[in-house]
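Please describe the entry underneath.
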Amino acid sequence: MFQNLRKHFADHLAERRTRRSRLVSKDGQCNIKLGHVEEKNRMAFLSDIWTTFLDMRWRYKMTIFNVVFLGSWFIFAVFYYVIAYVHGDLLEFDPPQNHTPCVFNVFGLTSAFLFSIETQMTTGYGYRCITPECGIAVIVVVVQTIVGTFINAFIGGIMVAKFARPIKRTKTITFSKTAVIGNHEGKLCLFIRVANLRKSLLIKNYIYGKLLKTTVTPEGETIVLDQVDIDFVVDAGKENMFFICPLTIFHIIDSSSPFFDMSMDTLAQQEFELVVFLDGTMESTSTCCQVRTSYLPKEIQWGYRFAPIASRSKQGKYSVDFSNFNKTVAVPTPHCAFCFLDEKGHGEEPKKGYDNAAFQHSTETPTDDIEM
């Protein structure tokens, strides 16, 4: 039992270290910290308050919204209370029977707060109402109505925009957990599988990748996040894909590919992060969205291919088995791109060999110790 707990704890720590080492998480979140930002740049977040609220977490957003509503209700309640106090409408002044208050049935701070809520939220219970006795009270009601309209419009718009953000659509687009390297139509390729979990399509799709690694220039400059373009294609091209079922995209490993100098033995020792992007337009809302994921060297399997996932029944119906979405199958694959392209004289040629003068062939007939 303790061994299982220790193994689970070790796996959990390893997973946390892996998450911290990524620039882009598997679900597309960017893991980067911005430090020592100048104060004038921080003020830019307030000038772009709409985007700031959209990017804000729900708990902070709801806290600010509650504070804004309660604060506006209380501030205007204080105005109504002061007006009632100056006009002598409060019960402590014992107004006469023929006294006309500025606001009916406002006798203290609590009743003023309730009237403020009814005015700003247009509730209108009918028990408390404004009178033409005090012009300042009428002005306060008009100002509160305008302010309340702006607050409701801003908060309502933020809520709708938050729910309708394209990032929510990206949750239903998934990439395979691992990438594989294998043969495809006489070429060595890196494969990634992507699927759309909704029946509504993504149109005008464009898929591409970036290889992030640390490089040193000939001048001695160290570039921590050097970005190398990675072209991904499908059989029909890399643009305007018919994204109705899971697709397997691939990158051709040729002499111009950054994977060309890697091999099956050295891949795990490499330090890079492959970030894959899928840009598209939602068919239902015509809103653009981007899906991201990343792969570390240990998440790339050399000498594998993805298991089949789509099938067609005898009745002519197509179906997709998502239990095979991340399943891979081992296939014969050269251990490096040089071997595949037969460069530098070490290609795979099963019909040829190398003569060794020191090798002596035995003419003895081997015995079979296994009884049939």
